[in-house]
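Is it possible to get an amino acid sequence alongside its tokenized fold?
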Amino acid sequence: MFFCAVVFVRPLQKKDVKAKKVAPVKFTIDCSSPANDGIFDTASFEKFLHDRVKVEGRTNNLGEVVAIARSGAASGTISITVAGNVQFSKRYIKYLTKKFLKKHQLRDWLRVVASSKTAYELKYFNIAAEGDEEDEE
């Protein structure tokens, strides 16, 4: 004796999947203090970002989706602006900045600090306070 069960399955209905519109993001990196001191080259940093930023998993795929610009050389505040119309994280910009600092052996003197919700700032480590503590001992 054989039992046979027949199951009828409804065909899957295709849902209208709309592409999510990503709000344009704009992140700035203020590198005025190390650039004014002459230890930080903003042109090479801009080129580094241009070469290393990944869009859809590929480098050198910026196109018109992501724009990297350097500004403010005359005003005294030098900043790099990264603007994009794709999903882009602020943390990724910090990661690339740290990678650049490590590559140019500046990571021991500079740190990347969030100055606002959409901006980072390169600051010096407070080495003078550590030197005073060593003198007291």
